[in-house]
Design a protein that fits this description.
heterotrimer, A alpha/beta, B mainly alpha, C mainly alpha, A: Rossmann fold, Rossmann fold, 5-stranded parallel beta sheet, B: 2 domains, two-stranded antiparallel sheet, 18 helices, 2 strands
Chain lengths: ~400, ~425, ~300
């Protein structure tokens, strides 16, 4: 009896000790922190740090402190693997990355290999923005979760918009010359042919990633093609410069974008882009939401006055990871991965589900338009993103068929 | 008379003991170090660093076949590194997909040989037009070719893989020496084996008549022509060999990182190998080895301490170009020879110079570190040894200006002393 | 038709910017035999200086003072850096400028940050000048054209009509002889280096807000400037001018052409779906300058108008 008691006491003490001296959960953040896509990566890092601080203030992740370790990969897949190795060497068991499907592809490969070669020392890759559909289809992996809607899901929303607007008869596609840009163009061609066979694609242009400094020649091609709308998946500097050239050349057709909210784009667009630039995303800060969420946005923008609350999905990622840790009572990557599968969360903008069959998030999407009549502006311009109820796509409706055959360890 | 002359020549030739000390011993030591390192149980990050060093040693040695030996300044050596690496990755892909047959019996361990073949082939094709000229024209052609091939890399997706590059898996095919090549500790043995072997082969190359002729072509191409050799041909052959060894390093890199992207062919890595070789010392065989070790260490570890490591690298490079054209190896050799010739006096002035440089460096480091933190805008403060150095505080500026003045003044003083002693 | 007109305009503007950069380099290269790797870094410095000056006092002062500042930095580089290395030969000089380019890159990153800065076109010139075929044409581009032409004329007058210009011209081809005649050749070198860098700085001032002002701007344009100098030929400003326009037009036109290899070589049996057939002319644009460089060096090492081999 006495023995059992003391044993229980010892166990309790060791448990408490385990809590008190708990490990830090290190999350390796691998994204560009310099170069043409530096601002995009930096914005992501700020949001990760903010989310980590919040979790730490509320008692940490299953009692552990969360720490973000930033690594600059210059959007180069090989450099990313060097940095991935460094992150793992420094004790990161979770990797987050988003900018560049080329990079995500290399990381998925490397993480899979690492996990087969180092059993018991697995690493989990949480992808917050690389949206090549292949990652949750043919190339899906148990060690990869995507917290952003993929290129096809977003293209469904944009092509629906084109179909609804009957004046649009000619569409111009322009994108970056790599897997993501190609996926966007392919999806647009496929879906437009299906939904609106009378809409003609008058141009399909791919330009080098991050190397074009003057988009004017491309814009002049767009103007002379008489396009009624432009669809682009450009992000980072490529988005900002494309819009800058479009504005200065007076191209006033609707620009349907994935990442019109890229940092710096709003300043480049200015008044002239009001009503003609659209973006499809999981959030715009003018959506009706809970008080808690509004407070969160306020706190974020107060802390980083030069940035806007843009990557809502980063908060979803961190929150869901936190919940998975609570649910499984562990911060082991494998346990967290198991707990994430099929997780349903009541998010501030609607219900969010992590699909178990291919690790793709299902979240509501919004097509928002750049507007001068907004409550919350972006980049201190008095302009911002607005949408109506009609522009909301329910999470369930974004679901696509998957070819994934998930292999679980 | 004639007997005496023969005798003198005989005396000039190195004795067996000298031969052993100069030619065999360094390689024995090098191999011994490589074998002994794992006994200390290095961590995973140490292994990562060591593997990167091994690859860079071979790459820099191959570059020095051009720069140091043949006197050819190339801005496109990474092309051969990259093409060799791509060749190795494609071969790894074939091993992965092979059901028996030829590729089924090729071990991944042999990939550096595929890299060598790829690099040498590329060298043979590209070298043909480029090697007709030396000097600036050669440098410019190498630059143009590098940019061309790098741009092509983004165009031919099936060969170079576009932005994503080509990935492979090293854990396929038959095992050699019982190495599965899975864990990084096993890859270390692979890298060590090829580094030592390649260094040995490159050294052997410098002893061949062709290696000797390449040095002669560097020093006086006209005279080479007079004695009946064709400098263009000599350059061309050396170029092929250098391309081959660069490709070998690329093959090592392919197995270590299992990925290659078109950036690997571009100007940046070419510039880095140039800096590695020159900082190490192009005149000495061991120079590039030293340069590869120091710069790879800086690249992977110094970059964790300070974001401005590239600035320090630039400063180091410019200082070496201006004041020590024979590189780190030249400094070490100078120290060794000087101490042996003039004893402690030399060591003393040398030590004084080191102290002066160290003092000046304090100023530079404080300035750079404070500036970096200010420009980042995260509000971080440089706090060495418990000091609190903000951009505004007078202490910061004192720590910048005083050491700079003292250090540079001391250096000037030493230089003047030396001049007077020399005169 | 509209494609031709716009490509012509844009190509000429880009070409003139290239000429501003390469004219200085041609002078330096011909006279001192140094291929200045850091030349594009001075272009970058011009843009950053202009950004800082214009945020304090407006664009027009920046237009004047930024190039002067860059010129002073250049002259100082020659006086206390390059001249010291000169004794060690051309390779050492080349490596010095190579290291300098690295250094300037890093210093720029520390002072102005790793990302692009918001250096904008002055408001006075930020309006569409005319509309052609439904496309607005920004006034600032025409302003670039004017500045470039003004610089061209000034440089021509300086070289052909002044005594200093005559000495410089002589030093371009026969530096030793000029020295024997009693001119202070090191000072001429320093002046030319400074002026060359100032011209690059001017290109940075007007190009930085037209394109992008970021720490990568030097490395992205640097190699192209080399191409201009080599293709134009040693010792020939005319050659550099022709090469600049040629490259500017070539690259702009290539972007605007939609044809692919399959369209052009289809008669040879090249399929639409083959990898070579899918390559478009537009995607070749970044390669063209280097193709030209390699070809020229192999076929005509003295360049278009040069008077001697490199």
């Amino acid at each position: 009896m006495n023995f059992t008691k003391s044993a229980a006491l010892a166990a309790a003490i060791s448990l408490c000790a385990g809590m008190a001296f708990s490990d830090t959960v290190k999350i390796g953040f691998i994204d560009p922190l310099s170069g043409p896509f530096g601002p995009t990566g930096d914005a992501g890092l700020k949001q990760f740090n903010f989310a980590a601080d919040q979790i730490n203030e509320n008692g940490g992740m299953a009692g552990n402190t969360v720490e973000i370790l930033p690594f600059d990969n210059k959007v180069n897949p090989k450099e990313s693997l060097v940095q991935l190795q460094k992150a793992i060497d420094q004790g990161a068991r979770f990797i987050v990355q988003g900018n560049g499907s080329s990079v995500a592809s290399a990381i998925i490969d490397a993480v899979n290999k690492h996990n087969t070669r180092n059993p018991g020392d697995e690493v989990l890759f949480l992808n917050y923005a690389a949206v090549d559909p292949a990652f949750t289809n043919d190339r899906c992996s148990f060690w990869h979760f995507r917290f952003d809607s993929d290129a096809d899901m977003k293209m469904e929303a944009l092509t629906d918009w084109v179909t609804k607007n009957e004046d649009i008869k000619k569409v111009y596609l322009i994108g970056q010359d790599y897997s993501f840009g190609k996926a966007v163009a392919a999806a647009a061609e496929r879906m437009l042919a299906e939904k609106a066979p009378d809409v003609e694609i008058v141009g399909n242009e791919l330009h080098p990633l991050g190397k074009v400094k003057d988009f004017t020649p491309y814009i002049q091609k767009i103007i002379s093609s008489d396009a009624d709308a432009v669809i682009t998946g450009n992000w980072g500097q490529d988005m900002v410069l494309l819009i800058k050239a479009a504005i200065s050349s007076g191209s006033d057709v609707p620009y349907l974008t994935y990442y019109g909210g890229s940092l710096g784009a709003a300043v480049a667009m200015g008044e002239q882009a009001v009503g003609s630039v659209y973006q499809v995303s999981e959030v715009n800060t003018n959506l009706p939401t809970t008080d808690a969420q509004n407070a969160l946005i306020d706190a974020y923008e107060a802390k980083y006055p030069n940035n806007n609350y843009y990557f809502h999905r980063i908060h979803m990622l961190m929150d869901m990871m936190d919940m998975a840790a609570e649910k499984s009572g562990s911060t082991d990557p494998k346990d967290i991965a198991m707990a994430l599968e099929g997780m349903v969360v009541d998010g501030p903008y609607g219900t969010v589900t992590m699909r178990a069959d291919n690790h793709q998030i299902l979240q509501p999407l919004f097509v928002s338009v750049f507007s001068d009549n907004v409550q919350r502006d972006v980049e201190n311009t008095s302009l911002g993103w607005a949408s109506t109820d009609a522009d909301r796509i329910e999470a369930e409706d974004t679901k696509t068929e998957t070819t994934c055959k998930m292999e679980r360890p | 008379m004639s007997d005496m002359a023969t005798e003198n020549f005989a005396n000039l030739a190195p004795s067996n003991a000298q031969k052993f000390r100069m030619r065999v011993l360094p390689f024995v030591l090098f191999a011994a170090v490589a074998v002994l390192i794992p006994l200390f149980g290095p961590s995973r990050s140490a292994y990562s660093l060591l593997n990167a060093i091994g690859i860079n040693i071979v790459f820099a040695l191959s570059y020095n076949m051009l720069l140091g030996r043949a006197g050819l300044l190339s801005f496109g050596h990474a092309v051969y590194f990259g093409l060799g690496g791509y060749a190795a990755l494609h071969a790894m892909g074939m091993i992965e997909n092979a059901d028996g047959g030829f590729w089924g019996s090729v071990p991944v361990f042999a990939m550096p040989l595929v890299g060598f073949a790829g690099g040498a082939l590329a060298g043979a094709v590209i070298g043909w037009p480029s090697c007709r000229r030396a000097g600036t024209a050669f440098a410019m052609i190498s630059l143009g070719v590098a940019e061309l091939i790098a741009a092509m890399g983004f165009m031919f997706g099936s060969i170079f893989g576009g932005e994503e590059g080509i990935s492979g898996d090293r854990m396929n095919g038959p095992e050699v020496f019982g190495l599965s090549l899975g864990p990084i500790g096993e890859v270390y043995w692979f890298i060590a084996f090829w580094t030592v072997l390649a260094a040995l082969l490159i050294f052997a190359f410098t002893r061949t008549p062709l290696g000797r002729m390449s040095e002669a072509t560097r020093d006086n191409p006209q005279r080479v022509e007079f004695v009946g050799y064709d400098p263009t041909r000599v350059r061309y052959l050396v170029f092929i060999a250098a391309g081959g060894f660069a490709g070998l390093a690329g093959g090592m890199s392919a197995v270590n990182y299992e990925i290659f992207t078109p950036e690997a062919l571009s100007l940046l890595p070419s510039g880095f190998v140039l800096i590695m070789t020159y900082v190490g010392g192009a005149r000495y065989f061991a120079g590039p080895v030293l340069g590869a070790i120091v710069l790879t260490y800086m690249q992977s570890n110094l970059s964790d301490f300070t974001e401005a490591w590239l600035l320090y690298l630039g400063l180091l490079f410019i200082t070496i170009v201006m004041y020590a054209p024979n590189g780190l190896a030249g400094i070490v050799a100078g120290l060794w020879n000087g101490t042996r010739a003039t004893g402690m006096a030399y060591l003393k002035t040398w030590a004084a110079r080191v102290v002066a440089i160290a003092i000046a460096m304090v100023g530079v480091i404080v300035l750079v570190e404070v500036a970096v933190r200010k420009s980042n805008g995260y509000g971080e403060v440089f706090e060495p040894f418990g000091l609190h150095l903000t951009p505004g505080s007078p202490l910061t500026w004192a720590l910048v200006i005083v050491p700079l003045i003292v250090g540079l003044g001391l250096l000037r003083h030493l230089a003047r002393d030396e001049q007077e002693a020399g005169a | 038709m509209e494609t031709v007109v716009f490509s012509l305009l844009n190509g000429v503007i880009y070409g003139l910017l290239l000429f501003m950069l390469s004219s200085g380099l041609t002078l330096i290269f011909s006279m001192m035999g140094v291929l200045n790797f850091a030349h594009a870094s001075f272009y970058m410095l011009g843009a950053y200086f202009a950004y800082t000056i214009s945020s304090v006092s407006g664009f027009w002062l920046a237009l004047i003072f930024a190039p002067i500042l860059v010129g002073l930095v250049g002259a100082a580089t020659e006086r206390w850096g390059l001249r010291k290395v000169h004794a060690n030969g051309h390779v050492a000089e080349l490596l010095f400028t190579f290291g300098l380019a690295y250094l300037i890159d890093e210093v720029v990153k520390i002072i102005w940050g790793r990302n692009s800065v918001d250096y904008r076109v002055p408001e006075l010139l930020d309006f569409p000048l005319f509309t052609l075929y439904g496309t607005q044409y920004p006034a600032y581009r025409i302003f670039i054209l004017f500045v470039a032409v003004a610089m061209l004329v000034a440089l021509w007058l300086l070289l052909k009509r002044t005594r200093a210009g005559l000495i410089i011209q002589a030093a371009l081809t026969h530096p030793e002889m000029v020295g024997h005649l009693g001119h202070n050749v090191p000072r001429i070198f320093m002046t030319v280096f400074g002026v060359g860098c100032a011209l690059a700085g001017l290109a940075g001032v007007i190009g930085g807000n037209y394109l992008v002002t970021d720490p990568a701007m030097a490395i992205s344009i640097g190699p192209i400037v080399f191409v201009v100098v080599v293709v134009g030929g040693l010792g020939s400003l005319e050659g550099a001018f022709i090469a600049s326009l040629l490259l500017g037009l070539l690259q702009t036109f290539a972007v605007s052409i939609d044809a692919s290899f399959a369209d052009i070589f289809g008669w040879l049996g090249l399929g639409e779906t083959t990898e070579v057939g899918r390559i478009t002319i537009a995607s070749l644009a970044p390669m063209l300058p280097f193709l030209m460089l390699v070809l020229i060096l192999m076929v005509r090492p003295r360049g278009l108008m040069g008077d001697r081999d490199i």
